Amino acid sequence: EVQLVESGGGLVQAGGSLRLSCAAFGFTFSSSAMGWFRQAPGKEREVVGGISWSGAFTYYADSVKGRFGISRDNAKNMVYLQMDSLKPEDTAVYYCNLVPPRGSWGQGTQVTVSS
């Protein structure tokens, strides 16, 4: 059973940084592409970006390109989202999942960016 546990969110001022972590269980992490997603209040969940199973390839939504970076540690079954130059519009609950998404979503981690 796929289990995903996100952490690292919090309240930060605009222009600040946060690093989110995602611990993955219940599947072969090292051979799975992973992604980060977010859902703002009143909006649908959207893709933030993703990373290939090896970590060699990443992609990002235009809204975060150049500010966010995704990395992974296959030895630890962890995927990370480094968020820099945060903007108030980045406020959302952030989730990780496989690409394409599979199983139940984790509880997510709240990121709030104040102006």
Task: Give a structural overview.
The structure is a single chain. The protein has 115 residues and is mainly beta. Helices cover 0% and strands 50% of the residues. The chain is built from no helices and ten strands. A six-stranded mixed sheet has the order 2-10-9-4-5-6, with no helix packed on it. Strands 1-3-8-7 form a four-stranded antiparallel sheet, with no helix packed on it.
Spell out the key features of this protein.
mainly beta, single chain, 115 residues, six-stranded mixed beta sheet
Short synopsis of the structure:
The chain is an all-beta fold and 115 residues long. The protein has no helices and 10 strands.
Pattern of helices and strands: EEEEEEEEEE
How helical, in percent, are the residues? Answer: under 10%
How far apart the termini lie comes to: 40 Å
Structural class: mainly beta
What is the average per-residue confidence, as pLDDT, rounded to a whole number? 97
Strand tally is 10
The assembly state of the depicted protein chains is single chain
List unreliable stretches of 5+ residues.
none
Count of alpha and pi helical runs: 0
Percentage of residues in DSSP E strands: over 45%
Summarize the main sheet: 6 strands, mixed
Query: In what order do the strands lie side by side in the largest sheet?
Result: 2-10-9-4-5-6
Overall 3D form: globular
Radius of gyration: 13 Å
